[in-house]
Amino acid sequence: MEWLKKWDRGQTLVEKWIISWSIIGMTVVLLANVIARSFLGNSLTYAEEVGQFFLILVTFVGLSYCARNGRHLKMTAFVEMLPFRFRKYLVIFTTFSTSGLLFFLTYYGVRYTWFLYDVERVTPALRFPLYLIMLFVPLGLFFGAVQYAYEGYLNIRYANRMIDGTLAIFPEEKEGN
Question: What membrane topology does this protein have (predicted)?
Answer without folding.
Answer: Multi-pass membrane protein
